[in-house]
Every structure is written in structure tokens, then in C-alpha cells.
Amino acid sequence: MPNSKTGPGGSEYQEMNEKLLPFDKDIFDVADADGNNERWTPAYVAGTEGGSSDINTSVANKMRIAVEPDGSPTFASYANVNLHKVSSKVFEAIADYDCDFGTPDVPLGVFWASCNFAVGLGPDANNGVSIGRESISTGVENRIHTSATFGAAAQTDYYFTTAVEDVAFKIDRHFNIYRCYYSLTQSPNEEWVLLAEYEDTAGALDESLNVVVSTFSPAQIQAQTAIADVGNFRINTLDADVVYNEIMGEAEDLVSAPFVEGVESLIAYSQTGYYHVHGASFLYPDKAIPVQLTANAASWNETGAIVEIIPANTITKTFDLHWASITSISAVLDGVIDIFTGGAGSEIKIASIDVSRTSNFSRENAMPVQIPQQVANSRISARFTSSTANADTVSLKVYGHVYDTSL
Q: Which site from 4, 91, 188, 237 is most exposed, i.e. has the minimal number of CB atoms within 10 Å?
């Protein structure tokens, strides 16, 4: 059971005495202009105006979630949902919040301007536990507020009045018990205060859960903004099954393209390896003559034209290449065909193929190629460089496969 201690404000706070294991962590060090990536998905929870999100853009090493009304202000709630669902029955989710409410104004009914931290079934207001910092222009004006709803059944709200805007939040779960904590100091110096405890007696949240960060503006005036800069996000879990599932993976897992080291499951590696051998194969150009490449008329000059081999949006599934069919070498030479990925003018070199013709022998055959796994719809191009001072030519087709059983 948790240990009880006394924290700021005269409340009790509780810490889990079990040793938790890291499950997810984000220090928001990779810039993303709309806060939408493989880990986070932003969306409106209510309204359609003024919502935005970014990562490491507005503030370094922070994810910003904001609602900033326009000249005809209407209320809105905007959220960013963490896609790494937690299936553990024992976990804690933690984050620092720097909150900014612009010019405070009156609430919209019972709804204050707020910066919220929640766990639940996505951003579903009927199934989740939340703690947040709130602001209005009347009454106590500033507070921390907890709420919970299980299967649309609202639980008791709890409040703590404070003018501090840079805070930290923690929600922990012990089976069907959820606890909401705040700290008036941020990582690494948190002093956790337990504000609320909720019991999900009917098991409404007995599913894999998302962590959700969100802001809400009543938009009574344009300047009534709600901006949260979130940092030091982490989820720690006790359940060994979660660690096991993260390592083993899900039935449909494939290694991501482009590859990200250290985050793939064993099933992803295994299943990707299967398709690497047995995925449906393709030839390109298909039922058409090979693509001719022309070298610059200078020895080993790399300024020859980069010629499109596979146009963008042609191979519509994740793929890679294994062989290149080289024909019509125009002269006695040594040469290199460089393979590129990317759009015209922004190509990135990913492979090279040896080309050779002597007075007795021409290596016009299939040559092995190895490239990184390519995102679906990628464009592939090539450039020929020759040892001679002539505009030598060579023709090329490529063989590859998709990571699926059909093209």
C-alpha cells in the first residue's frame, strides 16, 4: 500500500512503495510544428476555434497545447492524446505544466479556463480522471481542480486555491483506485500533494488507457486564452505484462519506416524479417524499357543528371530494393550507379551499384542492392558516374518487394 506523508497546504500525499518501471517518456526535444507525430495526436474535444499544438517550437523542450480565440470568440477545448496506451493496472503518469491564461474573464457556466492532465479512454469526457489548473476573473480566481467520470457517472470534484501557474501533475492508478496529485514545484523537486482519490467500482476504465493533455477557453473575450507548455512527461508502470507486451509487441507490428532504433518490438522485427524474404515483389519499370542514365562527360564527375526510376506514389506500401538489372553499358569503363530517395531537388543517397565493362566482358546482369526500408509512396532515382571523360550511358531496372503479401 502507499505510504502517507504530509505535503504543502496541509494535505496528505501518497507515494507508491512499489518499484515502478519506465513505460513512456517524452522530453519534447524534436520539433513538430503541429504536435502531431507517432506518439501524439491533437484534436478538438469541443468547439472548432483557436486550438493548436506544437512540440519544441513555441518553447524549447515543451509541448504546447493552446486555445486562443479569434476576434469572434467561441469556446473550445483542444487536446493532444498520447498514443502509447497503458494496459497496466498499476501506473503513474506525470508532467510539468506552465500555464498561461491571458486576460482572465468569467466562466462559461461551470467551465473555467483550464490546462488539464487526464487519463482515460482517449479524450472521452464520460470515461476519465483529470486534474488541471484553472482561472477566471471572479471569486477565488485561481485553483487546481480534479474531476472523474466513470461510464458517464460524474464523481465528486475537489479544489485547491493557488495563484501558482507553473505546477506539476500526477495521476496514479492502483487497480480500480485513481489518485490525483499536484505539486507547486516542478521536476526534479516535486512535493506531491494528494488532492483526490476516486474508485472505479464498475470497471468503466478496465481497458488500455490514454494520457491526454488539453486546454479549454470559455472565450468570453478574445484575450481569455488557455495555454499549457508541458514538459518532463513520463509514465511509469509496475505491471510486468506491460513491459512484456511492449517488448513482444502486437500481432500486426512491423518495423517502422523510416527505422527508429530501440523502439521496435520483437514481433515487429520477426514479422518484418518474414516479409523481407517473402513479401510480394515488383519490377520497375514494369513492361517498359529500362531507364537510361547518362554520365557527366568528365571522369568520376558526380554532376550527372539524377533520373527518376520509381515515381512518387507508385509503390503504395512500405518497400525496399534488392536487385538492379544493368544493361546497355555503352563503352569500356568502370562506373557507379548511385541510388537516391526523396523528391526532385532534395534526393538523399541510399545505395551504390558497381558497373563494369572491359574489352572482353560486360557485367550486364542483375546486381545486388541494399537500401533502408522505404516509406510507402517514396520516389526512387539514380545517377551514373563513369571513369571515362565521355557521356557514357547505362540502362537500369530495379527489383524490390513490399512488406505485405500483395502489391
A: 188
Q: Nearest-CA neighbor of 320 among 265, 277, 361, 354?
A: 277
Q: Which pTM value belongs to this model?
A: 0.58
Q: What's the Cα-to-Cα distance from 24 to each of 15, 87, 95, 205, 390, rounded to whole Å? A: 19, 13, 12, 20, 57
Give the whole-angstrom CA distance, residue 282 versus residue 380: 14
Block mean pLDDT (10 aa), the chain, length 407 = 34 49 92 95 95 97 97 96 92 97 94 97 94 95 97 96 97 95 96 97 94 97 97 85 62 76 78 88 96 96 95 96 96 97 96 94 90 95 96 96 93
Please return the burial class of 334, using the count of CB atoms within 10 Å of its CB with bins 0-12, 13-18 and 19+: middle
* Nearest C-alpha neighbor of 231 from the set 166, 289, 176: 166
Could you tell me which CATH number the domain at 281-402 has?
2.60.120
Among all chains, which residue has been given the C-alpha cell 487497480? Answer: 175
The CATH architecture annotation of domain 3-248 reads: Sandwich (2.60)
In the chain, which residues fall in CATH 2.60.120.200? 3-248
Q: Give residue 203's region: left, alpha or beta (phi > 0; psi -120 to 50).
A: left
